[in-house]
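Is flavin mononucleotide placement plausible here? Inputs below.
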Amino acid sequence: MLFKPLKIREITLRNRIMVSPMCQYSYEDGFSNDWHFVHLGSRAVGGAGIVMVEATAVEARGRITPQDLGIWKDEHIPNLERVAKFIESQGAMPGIQLAHAGRKASIFRSWDARKGACDGKDGGWRPVVAPSPIPFADNYVVPEVLSIDGITKITDSFVKAARRALKAGFRIVEIHCAHGYLLHEFLSPVANKRTDMYGGSFENRIRLPLEVVRAVRQLWPEHLPMFMRISATDWLEPQGWDLEQSVMFARILKKEGIDLIDCSSGAMVPNAKIPVGPGYQVFLSERIHKEADIMTGTVGIITQALQAETILVNNQASIIVIAREFLRDPYWPMHAALKLREGIKWPCPYHLASPTPEDCG
Ligand SMILES: Cc1cc2nc3c(=O)[nH]c(=O)nc-3n(C[C@H](O)[C@H](O)[C@H](O)COP(=O)(O)O)c2cc1C
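Reply from A.M.:
I modeled the complex. Tokens:
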């Protein structure tokens, strides 16, 4: 199953392996650069079916760190286009995750010894925005509450960013509605204490993510897929966003033209108890896949070829999404193919190292 092509709308993936979106925190003013090109290009060369570009900020204030990738202005398009074109030239589908960090914006990057909010002298900014004035943690910024007008502008930023992504040649757009960032903040009663039409009931909390999906789907071509990444649970029952709500949400998203739910979890609060281990999020994908009857991706400590294959054979997901193991091994699909005794074409310049040197491409 892992190497069986998969058709979504009018595009065909060469296999069911996706490079998970992974921030590199290595850019200036949001511009894609040589690191980005080589990093993602290598994983396309390595045989992935989809290479999903990391959380890409739809507004400058929606970056997680000052070094995030961005798509908030037209000037960002040419460098991104170079990346998308190369990925596709290697037989992988280029995707891009559009994101707004909400109350988790303006922090130091992960390997900085300083933690939490960074301010102007370190490239940070104020205000950061969110549904309610509740900081993510004590060392994060207290966010400014978005007005109704401000919320409308967020949708507009996603639309403009999607238009740029299309222009840059991406074939799949993924809306980031997970990990405690802005759209997830609206979903979760933990971060959303609003009393207007964007807070309170389930219908009100899903309103903004749904408006974003509707607006982006209108411009994203019929023949191209649209994904949504969610945190399927906050791991904070009973007060948080949970799997029951995710299933209901997924049914609605399917009707709105979302093709696949990329099922992650957590990151709404710093200290949720999460039973982390190999494939620990597979059950979330399985429930959503089966109960909402929609394609899903599963992610989280999937490192072994047979593990990935078993998930697909058991119908627990439609695609396998891999993050850190792809950092350890850009050629993971080639190695997985060897283990599963599957034929996979290696790039021709590498054919002399391949098990089937005569069959490259
Ligand atoms: C360096 C790094 C950067 C990440 N950046 C993003 C991101 O931009 N968007 C996102 O949705 N998840 C991001 N994640 C989460 C991963 O996509 C993935 O869900 C998580 O690492 C679990 O998968 P794994 O066990 O295969 O690493 C990141 C993870 C890592 C390690």
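Short version: DSSP finds eleven helices and twelve strands in the chain.
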